[in-house]
Amino acid sequence: MLVELNEEIKANRFEIPIAAPEGLRLKGTFYPSKKSAPAKGTIVYFHGGGLIFGHRDDLPSVYVSMLTEHGYGLLTLDYPLAPETPLPAIMEAISRSIAWFTDQGFRTLGLENADHYLMGRSAGGYLALHYAVHASAAVKPLGVIAFYGYHTLSEASFHVPSRHFLAFPPVSDSTMQSLIAQQPIASSPSEQRYLLYLAARQRGNWITLLFGDTPPDRNFDLTKEQLATLPSTFLAAADQDPDVPVRQSKMLHKWIPDSELHLVQSTHHDFDRTQTEEWGLDVYSKLIKWLDRD
Q: Which intervals hold domain Alpha/beta hydrolase fold-3 (predicted)?
């Protein structure tokens, strides 16, 4: 059953009826279009957090309002987090969530069709790109939106201690272990779980942490040939991103035939969160123009 959350930004929170890791209940939030006419499409959103931390409702409300006021629905989805759930199982859960939306979920949400875009920030951008590549022709998204995302887990800087993260106080092994839950989770206070991501980047074992007891699998990287099959794609990143190298976005722009890249002059990874007035509002205005291009 859908439950209205508030009046300022109307939203419905619900449980996703799919099989998930044992004991885990995945949820979603739907923000309907504020236009009286049928929605132009639904933006299916995945949060960032290195696949380790974060929550589905992390998109600042000002951007939620911009998108819904211009006629787009916004669906934000939980997914299991690593390391409690290894990456292959995370991917399977997301695949089932998207399949639920395109098969029956759009009707549950009161939509006329399952026309959708896949959107994500950081790790969520990786997930959006991954599922757009692997979507069947019948449920291919209208487009992809990736804010400071990446297409490969084989990026060299992901596998060595990060100079940027080493500048922070070191996270002890005991603290790191204490942050790992005994059961699968889909969200957690970012301030706490961020330390787990920080520890992994300080040690250079982030990607290893995602796969648990199995070796990292190159099949989770997206190739140049796969990226060439993507629909129209909107890309945005900071030109001095200290977390995900900007070359990732530049290569995506080079390899995705119909892509638009917006670089901002910033040293902030998630510039749209920390520099809303300076860069965020402008980039999201450009995103809406891209969405409305047809």
A: 43-271
Angle between helices 61-69 and 281-291 (to 10 degrees): 30
Assess whether pLDDT exceeds 90 at residue 97. yes
CA distance 59 to 266: 19
pLDDT at position 189 is 67
pLDDT band at 8 (very low <50, low <70, confident <90, very high): low
Q: How far is CA 152 from CA 17, 149, 164, in A?
A: 30, 10, 20
**How many helical (H) and strand (E) elements, i.e. helices and strands, does the chain have?**
12, 9
Distance CA 148, CA 64 (A): 18
Measured CA to CA, the distance from residue 131 to residue 175 in angstroms comes to: 33
> 94 near 131, Cβ under 8 Å?
yes
pLDDT band for 135, please (50, 70, 90 cuts): very high
Mean pLDDT of all residues in 2-11: 54
Mean pLDDT of 124-135: 97
Helix, strand or coil for residue 267? Answer: coil
Is the confidence at residue 91, as pLDDT, over 60?
A: yes
**In contact, 140 and 240? CB cutoff 8 Å:** no
Residue 7 reports pLDDT greater than 60: no
**Rounded CA gap, 80 and 185, in Å?**
6
List Cβ neighbours of 194 (8 Å cut-off, separation of 6 or more).
49, 53
Q: Give the range of the structural domain holding residue 276, as residue numbers without chain letter.
A: 3-291
Is the Cβ–Cβ distance between 94 and 101 less than 8 Å?
no
What is the total count of domains within the chain? 1
Residue type, 180: I
Q: What span, in angstroms and rounded, lies between the C-alpha atoms of 133 and 190?
A: 29
H/E segment holding residue 146: strand 143-147
DSSP track, 6-19: -SSS--EEEE--S-
Contact (Cβ atoms closer than 8 angstroms) between residue 123 and residue 194 = no
